[in-house]
Every structure is written in C-alpha cells, then in structure tokens.
Amino acid sequence: MTIKKLPFTKEKILEIIKVHPTPFYIYDEGAIRDNARLFKKAFGILPGFKEFFAVKALPNPFIMKILKEEGFGTDCSSYPELVLSEKIGTVKEDIMFSSNDTPANEYKKAKELGAIINLDDISHIPFLEKHAGLPDLISFRYNPGPARKGNVIIGDPKEAKYGFTREQLFEGYKLFKDKGVKRFGLHTMVVSNELNPKSFIDTARMMFELAVEIKEKLGIKLEFVNFGGGMGIPHKPEDKALDYNKLAQEIKELYDEIIVKNKLGALKVFMEYGRVITGPYGYLVTRVLHLKHTYKDFVGCDACMANFMRPAIYGAYHHITVLGKEHEAPTRVYDVTGSLCENNDKFAIDRKLPEVGEGDIIVIHDTGAHSHAMGFNYNGKLRSAELLLRENNEVVEIRRAETAEDYFATLDFDKMKSFKA
Ligand SMILES: *Cc1c(COP(=O)(O)O)cnc(C)c1O
Fold first, then answer.
1. Same-domain status, 267 and 311
2. CA–CA distance, 401 with 82 (Å, rounded to integer)
3. How far is the C-alpha of 91 from the C-alpha of 64, rounded, in Å?
4. Cβ(143) – ligand 1 distance below 6 Å
5. pLDDT over 80 at 336, yes or no
6. What pTM was estimated for this model as a whole?
7. Among 366, 372, 388, 391, which residue's Cα sits nearest to residue 3?
8. 271 Cα: distance to centroid of ligand 1 (angstroms)
C-alpha cells in the first residue's frame, strides 16, 4: 500500500497559479534529495557503486544539478543530453553514454567529453573507431534474448532492438582486446518500470556469472557491470515500492558468492535508473475547463496528452487527486481528458473521483520521470512549464512554458511570403 500524499496544500497551489498559470509540472526537491540519499546509502554497500541518472527521464539541468550534488553521474543517449550533462559540469567517466542506432556526431561528442561509451551493437565497433577513434574504456550492452523474459513495457528481449547477442559479446571484447583496448565494462537492461525484486536479482546473477565467464574465456577482468535502468515505482495505491536495502543486500550476497569467490573483486557495480529517482516526486497540475456529459461523463483539463502521454501510449495508471476534495467520497466515474483531437487523449478512463466542478484543480501523480520529457507539439499544443518546490517552500521556475513563438521558431514566414505556390 502506498499512500498518495501531496507536498503542497491547495492554498499553496492557488498562490503559485497566480504567477504560473496551469498547466505546469512541479517537482519536490526535498523528496528527490531524500530518495537519492536513501538510494545511495542502500546500494552504496556494493563495491565501486555509482548511479548514473538517466537524463531522458527528466532532462532539466536544475534537477540534474541537484542529483550531481547528491553524487550521481549522468546516463546520456543523445547529443543534447550530453550537452546538458556538460552544462552542469558532469563530464568524463561520470557520463555513461548508452545509446542505440547512434549517429557519428554523438559518438564524437561523447568521446570529446571523455564519457564511458556503451555500444549497442557489434557493427558499431568499426563505426566508432572510424568516427571517434578507439576509446580507452569500452562497454557493451548485452541482450540475453531467449534467456530472459523482459516485461510489458520493454518487451521480450529477443524481440528487442537493443544490445549484443551472447556470441557477439565475446567476439566484441576479443576485437577490442586485439586492438589494444584494456578497460572493459558490461551493460544490460532487460526490464522497465518493474516492481518485482526477483527480476533485479536475476539480472545481477546473470551479469556476475557473465563477468566470470569473460575472465575465463578471454582473460579480461571487467572494470564494471551496469544493470541499466528499469526500477518501477508504485503507481497505484495498492502497489508496493521496491525495498532498496533488501535488494542491495541480496545483490551484495551474489557479488560475494560469484565475484569475490572468483577473485574479481575489483568489479564495480553501476546503475542508470531514471524513473525510481525522480518519478514519484513530480506532479502535473491542471485546471478543469469543462465538464461534459454524453454517453459518459468527461472532465476536460487544460493539460493534454502533448504535456503528458504515458496513460495514452502505455495505458499507464497515474493517480489523480482533486485538490481540496481529498477527503470526499469517490462517488462519480469520469474519463479525465485533454483537448487533443485524438480520442486516446485521456489521463484516466472510468476513474472513480469525488464530484468534479468547473475550475477545480487536478493533480496527476508520479509524473517526475518520462512525463514532461515525452511532451510533443502535435495539434499545435504547447509544452508546459516546470517548477521546483524548494526545501524552504520557495517555488522556482526551472523551465518556462512554451509560447506560440517557440512553436513557429523553426518556420520562416518571410521566405514563405516570397515563395510562389
Ligand atoms: C530509459 C533507459 C534508462 C532509464 O530507465 P528508467 O526506467 O527510467 O529507470 C536507463 N538506461 C537506458 C539504456 C535506457 O534506455
């Protein structure tokens, strides 16, 4: 059971709205820091532990700066994400560059910054060498294929586009070793938004056993294993959060049993989680514009799927609170919608809520990761602002809302005027 609390009162939100109109995202700095510390303390029992925050989950440099201060590196997968990392002063081997289908300029930038490069495919070996040169330290992403089941969001590993097969992995290490590369890492990511601890234990075992096999077959002592991302968060009130301490303990036991026993004790354990780091500590705040009663009852919000698309694309459950009505009985059933000309533009379907009125403020929970970041401009919709609720209760705008001018920024109307249709 997870209680869905809010870090602000209705009065506080009404005060914020006077300066920052809805819709907006608001992140809770205190809760992000507390969670980051618990996470680091728990997994810090693993040798050489480091968490590289998956930038794609919440690519905002203010948040990234907070996480840097808490001791996290960054996990980047594109040129702009590398630049964001550089802007907050996270460079060199504090960056994990885990991309796929990677363009040459991105490898070049990653190499320039001295990032750890994690290759997604064996064909990228000559590609990387040609465009960015040989790295000092190289990592490969392993896809266990039929050996593992994956989960709903990421899919079946053997259907997934990511990573090296087992054979390619050994071939890849050998290729680089023959070229004189001396430092190696191993990466994988087989689940996404997963709440079952067993899946992370299975991954740890798989990676530790593979490290031993790589040592035995190729004489390579890996410098690190990286378990990737994919820890889930309790979206539904009945979901249970992962227990960091328990999980860390169990992984540590496996480390001792497999790694230490085989005298590979210099192996570091890396992770690159995003969702579990910031997901529960972000809220999308939106106002009810219209109530509509046809064959169903609809609550129409001023945010839409262009601001937040997880429910529409994954059917994801996100808890909803009607501000000020937390203690009222959920006597009504609504579809909570946005204004996009797409019928899947719904934040919730058949959701039990207290009676909603025009002008009510709705808070959508667990939108601190993969939420604002997935925004888009379809239908000429503009992305909302991001605010940070600081530990002293001050509110800082950490990204302004887009304007129509932003939407038109890539168009040249003067050129259009002289263009003969
Ligand atoms: C998306 C992604 C992550 C982060 O995933 P979370 O579900 O946010 O933990 C980490 N590594 C890679 C390679 C990814 O694609």
1. no
2. 23
3. 13
4. no
5. yes
6. 0.97
7. 366
8. 10
